[in-house]
Structures are given as structure tokens and as C-alpha cells.
Amino acid sequence: MTVKQPSQSSCLDDWLCYLEAIHPATIDMGLERITQVAEQVGLLESFSKIILIGGTNGKGTTARCLEALLLNQGFSVGTYSSPHLIRYTECVRVNGVELDEQYHIDAFKQIDDTRGDTSLTQFEFGTLGALSIFKRCNVDYILLEVGLGGRNDATNIVMPVASVITTIDLDHKAFLGDTRESVGYHKAGIFRANTPAIVGDFNIPDSVTDYGTEIAAKMVLANKDFHFTQLESQFRWQYFDNDWYFDNPNIPAQNVATALTVLATLDLLPSFESVQCCLSEIQVEGRFQQLSTFPLVYVDVAHNPESARYLATKLQHLRQKGFKIHALAAMLADKDKASVLKTLTPYVDRWSLASLHGPRGERAENLKPLLDTDKQITIYDDVEGALNAQIHGLKQDQALVIFGSFLTVAQAMTYWQNNLK
Description:
The chain contains 15 helices and 17 strands. It is an alpha/beta fold. Helix 3 packs across helix 9 (about 255-265) and helix 7 (about 180-185) packs parallel to helix 8 (about 205-215).
């Protein structure tokens, strides 16, 4: 069945539906197809300096930090991240701002008209679309967030001025394997010979450093070349002559330390005062984002063991302030649900579990047996139903934390905007 291409005056949703219809597979690993189309469209030419950002967690916050610090110095910056929460246009920012839908439509049409018979996934279209937009806007720097793994990810077609691995943990096991060594091997695939490769993980698998050594990447490693120390209300970053203390930001300080190292390596590090000012203003949507003061509500996209450990530290701080934690969890079936819930259970006083609908969604009934707790557990058919039942009953000493996936947070944020904001 032939699917008709929307017109250039069609809406962005029509184009996204079209892109999904012509290549229904969400993931189709390999770089041959996308490289061919990128060359045809002229997107592999050196029109901007690219920083390629991979890792299990922390890619989005590292990119946001780099974006803020580069903009602070007067550079123009294009940022590509995924997945989006509410609107597809969130995936592409130029100088920190989302663009009109027409930019995406124009880019998709250009790529679709050029690709011929070459099939592309929606993510591959999105990656090429972002590069097309950045070329059109003639930005100085491109921050390109890796989608899955690295070695065979669509973003890995570019030649970066630096490659970054934030953290390494288990996720997407069907594609990346079930050991940190295997995951590290895939992520190290974004390294390039004689090019800076910054790794922010504290326990770097040998597969990462072995590959970096093999191709003669210029590796800059956490706990060896640069150091990060988390203190009570501050964090310390040390790299060569820099020994700086900053107030704790709204994003993981470990990712800030990695971003600072990237800039220092590229001789782009701003002043201490500029960094401190930028850090005080950074907030990344969906990353322990506070939606309300009363009732006290947070959302977090935590969906794998490492991100759950970070969320656990936030819950612990809330408990130390005297709050009782009410958790609302909804997750995808292909995630390590047991480990995530086990990590957070000691800090939660009351549980609500909601189902996520769709082909990858997990039923709330299947999450309940994974909770080893004697605390109250209530099951709901969806996130909206859980919020309808729970949001107005929260007391002054209670905090509601909604987590489990990007879909969960998106549904909670949409509910908030439509009903409570």
C-alpha cells in the first residue's frame, strides 16, 4: 500500500504519522541507509562544530548545561534531544528555543524528496531533520544527543569535535546486552581517533577505555583526569588548574562536572562567575521537576536502575525535610521494573500504580508483585485516573512523586496543564 506524502502546508502531526507509516519499525540499527541519505542532502559537510553526547542517563541534562554555557559566551547553538515529552518540537532547539513546526516540515520534505527508495525510521528522519535545520540556521555548535547505544545509532554518522559518555548502566538490553562491558562497547562507538572523548562515569568499563586506546581517541576520564565530589550543599570540580566549588544545581551535579570538562577540553570554559550564574537557572523538563508547591508535586522520567538511584537521593532529602512520600509509578514492560521499584521502595510511604497503554505499556497489576513492601498500594487504570483520585487529598506534609517513563511524565504534565495549572 502506497502512503501519500503530506504537502508542505500540512501540519507537523500529519508528517509524523506519514514517517511512521512508511517505516513502522521504531528501531532499525545500522548506519548505511541514513549515511547515504545524509550525503545526498549534504548534511555530512562540516558546517558546524558537533559535540556528540551518549550515555545511559544524563544526556539531556549534560546537553542543557553545555547549551547554557555556550550561549553565555555568545555562540549560536543547535541542540537535538529525544524523546520529547509533550510536543515533537521540543526535540530541536536553536539558541535554547523551540522552532515553528514549519522548520521541521520543510526539513522532512527535503529529506523525503531526496531519499528515493531508501527507507528511514522516524528517529532517523528526526536526526537528519535536526541537522538540516541546524545547517539552515548556520549555528556555531551542535549538541547531538545519541538515541540508543552509540555505535549503530543514527547520530553516529557525524564527525564530532568531541564525544561524551555521561554514565553507563543497563538499559535497552535487547540491543546493547546485559553487562556494563557490552553497553560500554556500544557507547564507545561514538569515539573518534585523535578527538577528545570525555567519560563522566565513575566506574568506567574496560570495553570503553580499550576501544578508546585502540583508535587513539584523546580520552579524558572521570576519577583519573578530572574529579567530581558531591558535598552537602555544594559540589567540587577539579580539572588541571581548575578547582571550583559550586552550589548544587537543579540538575545532577555529576553531569555538570562532565559538561565543564568538555568545555575545558575544547578551550571553551567560561569564568567561574558565568558558570555559577548559568547553573542557578538551569531546569530540565521532567528531571525531578517541581510542578507545584502545594500540593507538593514532582515528576521524574526515571525508568532504569541508575536513574532510580538518583531519584532515591532526592526522595531521601524530602524525607529528611519531614515529608512523607507518595509515589505514582507507571512503566514500560521492557524496562528493569523490579530493580527500579526495589531501589525506591525504602523511601516511599504510599504507592499508586498506574497502567500505561500501548504496545510497550505495562499493566499496573504486573507492577504490584514487584513491590516488596507492607505500605499501602493502590492500582489505577491510567495516570489520569490516579491523579484524579489522589491529587486533591495530599496534605501539607506529603509529596507526590510521579515517575517511571517519559510517557508517564508527559501524561502527568498534560493533566497538570489541562486541570490544575
